[in-house]
Amino acid sequence: MINQLAEEVKRSVFAYEQSQFSVTKKDIISQPNLLGQKLDKRRKELGISMSLLELQTGASLATLSRLFKNPEQVKFATVVNVAEALGVRLCTVE
Predict the structure, then answer these.
(1) Chain CA centroid to CA 34, Å
(2) Domain named HTH cro/C1-type: which ranges (predicted)?
(3) If both were cysteines, with which of 22, 57, 66, 93 could 73 make a disulfide (CB 3.0 to 4.6 Å apart)?
(4) Of 36, 23, 27, 33, which Cα lies nearest the Cα of 79?
């Protein structure tokens, strides 16, 4: 009984999260360098300096610079951490 309730809650939360999030064609990034540019643009919109982002994410300034130019040059975990720090949601689209 408790397991069934837990599963129902999980499904409800997932459905709610999905209803709050929609992806449009303009949101889909097909080239890595465009992701880097989007993250850097978001950083600037938020007024976050590279130094502060370095402190927030643990990624060095050099790594952040590489990420913003070409995310393929850094570990995926770094991309995820930086995106999360900037409030950018990463997802897959099928």
Answers:
(1) 13
(2) 39-93
(3) 66
(4) 36
